[in-house]
Specification:
alpha+beta, about 35% helix
């Protein structure tokens, strides 16, 4: 695993067909950085859920999203998904037929991995970026 800070940003079109492409790009990049299989799998699932949320809830305002993958100092992996929609997502109290499970799943994965999640405003677009920080060493 690289100990040097590295970063990879890539755009994703906010359509269902591009969700697997975001997952594939994430897997390819993290594998090339030598990220462990466990952290790679967790990261791919998180990116899939976050990009799916952009497609379902923000695409009308944000035709593209930006995915950020970065190794920060202190052995931390940053996963970020930014869109131009100003609404800050919150997990629903209970899942329902139309969805509502994605953010609960992301929250559980982040907690299980010993990571942290935050939603920060993106002044450039008026939207937000969801940042997930995971330890590079599996919990």
């Amino acid at each position: 695993m690289t100990s040097t800070p590295v970063r990879h940003d890539f755009p994703v079109i906010s359509t269902p067909g591009h969700v697997p492409l975001a997952r594939h790009e994430t897997a390819k990049v993290l594998a090339s950085w030598g990220v462990s299989d466990q952290v790679l799998d967790t990261s791919c699932l998180i990116i899939t859920e976050l990009v799916t949320n952009v497609v379902r809830h923000a695409a009308v305002v944000s035709p593209t999203a930006m995915v950020t993958l970065a190794v920060e100092g202190r052995g931390v992996l940053l996963l970020g998904v930014a869109d131009a929609h100003p609404f800050k997502p919150k997990p629903l109290m209970a899942a329902h037929d139309a969805g509502g499970r994605g953010l609960h799943l992301v929250s559980a994965l982040v907690h299980e991995a010993g990571g942290k999640a935050e939603v920060v405003p993106d002044a450039a677009t008026g939207g937000k970026q969801i940042n997930i920080r995971l330890p590079l060493a599996p919990a």
